[in-house]
Amino acid sequence: xxxxxxxxxRREFLQKTGLQVAGLAALAPVxxxxxxxxxxLAPEMVMYQVQPKDGQRCDGCLHFQPPNACAIVxxxxxxxxxxxxxxxKG
Length: 90
Prior knowledge:
mainly alpha, 1 helix
């Protein structure tokens, strides 16, 4: 076995692997953002309704994102709507 080539091959492997890891690390924020968008709950799962309940409205919820979105529920969310994960703004 030729031991003179082995360190060179190992060094090349580590350099290539390092570049691949750096490339994957650069893509991580994009992958995380995509995963977060897909991880939202379906409106049916949280009993979403388009009218308020007991004075609670989506526009008064911590998760509401104006003008018509929610951080944790998928789809168009009406400001006057309500769902079971409603949480008062701090």
